Amino acid sequence: MTLGRNCKLLKIYISEDSKYQGHNLYHALVRRLAEAGMAGVTVTRGIEGFGHEKRLHSTRILDISLKLPVVVEVVDTPEKIDAAIPIVSEMVNEGMVFITDVEVIKYGKEITD
Fold first, then answer.
1. DSSP at 26
2. DSSP H or E run through 25
3. pTM for this structure?
4. What CA–CA distances, in Å, run from 102 to 1, 23, 36, 60, 108?
5. Considering the chain, what is the average pLDDT of its residues?
6. pLDDT tens sequence across 55-109
7. What is the DSSP string of 32-92?
8. What number of other Cβ atoms are within 10 A of residue 66's Cβ?
9. Residue 113 has pLDDT above 80, yes or no
10. How many C-beta neighbours within 10 Å does residue 11 have?
11. 52 or 17: whose pLDDT is higher?
């Protein structure tokens, strides 16, 4: 698969304990986005953060460590990201979702012109 230089980044901030149909939301998102043919998806677990409620979640506080922030990132063509929005909207009930323009310099083994 080839990506052009001008792509979009879809970024989803959720909690590690967020669920979708009884499964971890981040895992369910990865599976659904893979089925949708996205170029790639990465999930990153945060070590500390807070959201709209301003409650601190940290690996230093053991009793709430399962509520750490998780970031799901998807980079693909504008058309593919647009197609992913209904999937994400249906699955993500709380958190933050945004899209921004990115310039892809390298994808896989190829350098983008």
1. H
2. helix 25-35
3. 0.84
4. 18, 30, 20, 33, 16
5. 87
6. 666 655 555 456 788 999 999 999 999 999 999 999 999 999 999 999 999 888 7
7. HHHHTT-S-EEEEE-SEE--TT---EETTSGGGGGG-EEEEEEEE-HHHHHHHHHHHHHH-
8. 10
9. no
10. 14
11. 17
Give the position of tokens 């063509």. Answer: 77
Neighbours of 3 (CB within 10 A): 19
- Domains of the chain and CATH, by start: 6-111 (3.30.70.120)
Q: How many residues does the chain have?
A: 113
Which residue bears the tokens 């958190």?
95
Supply the DSSP string of 31-46, one letter for each residue.
HHHHHTT-S-EEEEE-
Look at residue 110 and give its three-state secondary structure.
strand
Phi, psi (deg, nearest 5) at residue 4: -80, 180
pLDDT computed for residue 68 by the predictor = 83
